[in-house]
Amino acid sequence: MTIVAISRELGSGGTAMAAAIAKALNFEYVDREIVLQAAQVHGVPEEKIADVDERRLSLWERFDEEKRRYLIFIEAAYYSFAEKGNVVTAGRGGPFFLRDVSHALKVRIMAPFEVRVKRVMEQEKVDQRTATARVRNYDRELSARIDYLFGLDWTLPEHYDLVINTGADAWQFYTDLLVWAARHPQYQPTPESQQRIRDLSLAAQVRAAIAKDPMTKNINVEVAAQSGRVALKGVVFSPAMMDAAADVAKRVPGVTSVSCEAVEIPRVYPGPIM
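Given the sequence above, the corresponding structure tokens read:
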């Protein structure tokens, strides 16, 4: 039931390594499938989900309710795969979604900048200037995205269990090392860690259900789950809004009870125009 969550730099070889590790472990490999599931389950065009998945949002887009909902759908899809275990995930902020899950092996695949540029030149058949711009833009977009979603610096090694520099092109060694780590007792599930991933996944499914329902899609609430008990917390204009969110949460499979903590903001109506 181990989870291997890989963060990869463009030109690091991380995508190919993730697939190779999954094959060696006989694990499911998940990458683009997260976007596809988010789109299919929630009835959203795939290209719209992919758009918010692959780039940073502008300042104005961060206040766009539709795009906020798409990010929630991606999170729910990610957790649905991770909860099953025996899976290797590539990208999508996996190490950060799973930072509190002890049986998740969190890995960063990186390489020296000049090596990455050379690989992009070879793989995409572009000149050095174009490849350099691609690598720099990728780093800038990913840094802004992780900061926006998690408030963290994705380049810091403290967020990972392993950081692998692929500059030496020792691909079999890198793969063998990660396969060994994934099989190590340190990354085998415990009853506590399995409950933790179930709780995280259930909270994400509840957030997605609230974001999808026409009556509650614009309500922004915090959701926490513990052994089927769900707690909602948020700022609303009326208690009825939180009640509606609770009704949606109760219909999510796995939810046994729902509690609410709402802070009501009175609506302010303009006075008469003099």
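The chain has two domains: 3-187, 213-264. Try to locate this feature in the token string yourself.
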